[in-house]
Amino acid sequence: MLKLIIGVKGTGKTKHLIEMVNSASEASSGSVVCIEKGSKLTYDIKHTARLIDTDQYGICDAQSLFGFIAGIIASNHDVTDIYIDSALKICENDLASFDKLADEVNALSEKCGFHCTMTVSVPVEKATDTIKKYL
Q: 55: closest CA among 26, 41, 76, 35?
């Protein structure tokens, strides 16, 4: 199941995501993964969660992000939660590609049984119909 946290910069999306990651890493009986662009969350995410910087792996668009998520799930069947900070930024701020990614990740999460939460920097009034269905 996919859940999106949306809002403009400075509205607390990342802070909320950090709290969710740390809570999940304490409660989960499996693996918790947090994907970010850059390495700004290094000291905020508990060491029990796997923190991955997309810049280190050349992930710079929606298609490569989906492939990366699918690869994580394919290689580790114990993943219970995936969190992605600044997902739209990773997708080059391409809303059409992000909409496709959201639907694909939701379908994969339902099929494989993990939860996925992403932060998306977009004003509520500019959210697409696809984004709105995952709020």
A: 35
Amino acid at residue number 102 = A
Distances, alpha carbon 119 to alpha carbons 75, 83, 134, in Å? 24, 8, 11
Q: Are 122 and 88 in contact (CB under 8 A)?
A: yes
- Triad 28, 33, 38: Cα angle to 5°: 150
Where b means 16+ CB within 10 Å and e means fewer, 73-91 reads: beeeeebbbbbbbbbbbbb
Q: What is the pLDDT of residues 14-67, one digit of tens each?
A: 999 999 999 999 999 999 999 999 999 999 999 999 999 999 999 999 999 999
Token pair listed for 64 = 């490569």
Tokens of 73: 């799930």
